[in-house]
Amino acid sequence: MNGHPDTCRDRRIVLWRHGQTAWNLERRFQGSTDIELTDEGLGQARRAARLLAALRPDAIIASDLKRTAVTAAQLASLTGLDVTHDEALRETFAGAWQGLTHDEIVRLYGEQYAAWKRGEPVRRGGGELETEVADRAAPVVERSADKLPDGGTLVVVSHGGTIRTTIGRLLGLAPRTWEALGGLSNCSWSVLGETARGWRLLEHNAGSLPEPVLGDDD
Predict the structure, then answer these.
(1) pLDDT averaged over consecutive 10-residue blocks of the chain (218 residues)?
(2) Could you give the residue numbers annotated as active site?
(3) What is the pLDDT of residue 208?
(4) So where are the chain's domains?
């Protein structure tokens, strides 16, 4: 998938996090739990969809969980595109952590939490490793991007953790550095652009349309 000078097709991947949920407000670890959007979350999705529709995407893929499916549906209704749902784009399964607040996780699983923050491979709550999330999600994104026309745009509607690991994998970053990418706000997105040397991060945690970068090396 990493491009070469004679095969760069100038494609873009927009990785869009779902809108707000009640568990987001409560700082509860959602993981693969199927939580719905709040009214505010639906409003966020509608506002963001109006912006993303201006990018004229060629395809939309999404996690099959309710919060991502409903978010994706807002863009689909504006573009007329169908949404391809794939469970491989779900958030990290985090076992016993799911449903716990941040403070509860730190109190009950402090050593595990600290090891994860240090960049060590940790099965949070007995769940998936971040590399395993990337193993399932990144190939789905790559296959979908391969189907784009030259200069085409793919929108991926997923979850904060899954988006971070997918970006890390597509950029070829070492897993222990993925946390450095930082989180995405609800209904914000990141943009990857194709270059002759592979994928490049163009925008991160954006809430407005990407602007061209002029003279970034001078």
Answers:
(1) 61 97 94 96 96 96 98 98 98 96 96 91 95 98 97 97 97 93 94 94 87 55
(2) 18, 91
(3) 79
(4) 12-206
Residues 194 and 69: their CA atoms lie apart, in Å, by 26
In contact, 32 and 98? CB cutoff 8 Å: yes
Q: Is 9 annotated as a binding residue?
A: no
CATH of 12-206, one of 3.20.20.140, 3.30.420.40, 3.40.50.1240, 3.40.630.30: 3.40.50.1240
pLDDT at 98 (0 to 100): 96
Find the farthest-apart pair of alpha carbons in the chain and give their distance in angstroms, rounded: 53
Q: Is 145 annotated as a binding residue?
A: no
3-state secondary structure of 51: helix
Confirm or deny that 18 is annotated as ligand binding: yes
- Report pLDDT for 213: 55
Q: Is 19 labelled a binding residue?
A: yes
